[in-house]
Amino acid sequence: xxxxxxxxxxxxxxxxxxxxxxxxxxxxxxxxxxxxxxxxxxxxxxxxxxxxxxxxxxxxxxxxxxxxxxxxxxxxxxxxxxxxxxxxxxxxxxxxxxxxxxxxxxxxxxxxxxxxxxxxxxxxxxxxxxxxxxxxxxxxxxxxxxxxxxxxxxxxxxxxxxxxxxxxxxxxxxxxxxxxxxxxxxxxxxxxxxxxxxxxxxxxxxxxxxxxxxxxxxxxxxxxxxxxxxxxxxxxxxxxxxxxxxxxxxxxxxxxxxxxxxxxxxxxxxxxxxxxxxxxxxxxxxxxxxxxxxxxxxxxxxxxxxxxxxxxxxxxxxxxxxxxxxxxxxxxxxxxxxxxxxxx
Length: 344
Fold this sequence. Notes:
Elements: H1 2-9, H2 16-27, H3 33-46, H4 50-63, E1 74-77, H5 91-103, E2 108-114, H6 124-131, H7 139-148, E3 151-155, H8 156-159, H9 163-173, H10 179-182, E4 193-197, H11 201-213, E5 218-225, E6 231-232, E7 241-247, E8 250-256, H12 276-287, H13 293-308, H14 315-327, H15 330-342
Helix pairs in contact: 1-3, 2-4, 3-9, 4-11, 5-13, 5-14, 5-15, 6-12, 7-15, 13-14
C-alpha cells in the first residue's frame, strides 16, 4: 500500500491492476485506516480515472453477497450515483416499481440496489422501509421477490460486507470518493442493463467508459440541470436531460426532451419533499394512478428503464407500457408483494 500511496502522491494514477491491489487491501481489512483515507483522498483530489473506477468495482463485485436470478429473467437496475442533494421524492425507486410491474410479464425483473440517504432527503432504503419493506431479507427471499414480484431491493450494507472497513473512513472524510461511483457498478444480482442518474456530464463520461470495461449490455446515464442551476441525476418534466447510452460496446450522447414526448411541463416544487414519509405518500399516490407531475416523472423514468431492459423499442413505447402498469394495478402489486414476501 505504501508504494501505491507514493505513486499517488507523485501525481501518477493507478493502473487497473494496481487499483485492484489497493482496494483489495482496503476491502479485506489489511490497510490501515490512515492508508485508506490517504488513498481515497488522493484519488478524489484529482478525480478518479477509468482504471481506478474499474479496479475498485472489480474488487467490490468479487466480495459482494450475490442474489441468484430466476432462470429466464433479465435484470435491470435504476441505482444512481447520488451526490446531487436531491429534495425530490424517490424517483428512481418509484420508477423501479413501475418498471417491474410492466416488465415481469415480459421476462424483465428489477434488482434495485440502494442505500440510506447520504446527500438527498430520502434514500431508496429510507422510503421502502417507510412503506413497509423489510431491508434485511435473506438473499433467497430476494430471489423469490424477483420471481413473484418482479423486483427485489438489494440493501447495500447487507450485500457489501467488505465496506465495513472503508465505511468509517468515508464517514470521517465527509466528501465524495470513488466509492460513490462504484455503487451503481456493483449490483448484487449482476445487472448489466441499467438506468443510472449521475451528478454531472463528466461523471457520465467516466462511468460510461467504466461500464464498457465491465461488460455492460445496455445502460443509460442521465443528467439534467434545474432552472436554478442545480444538478439532478434523473429524468424529469422540468426540462430536457442529457443522456449517454452504453450499448453494443459503443457510447452515444443525446438529449431527452420530455416536451417532445408530449409530457406536460412541471415545476420542481411540485414534487419536493422534506422526509422519507413525505416521499412514501407520493409513491402511494403514483401507484394509485393519481395524475400529476410525480406520476409523469415516474412514467418517464420507468420508460427509460424498460427501454434499456429490452422490452420497449423506444421511449414512446416504454411510456405506454409504464402507464398501463400503473393504471391496471400491476405496479402497486409489486410493492404489496415485496412487503408481504420480505416480512414473511
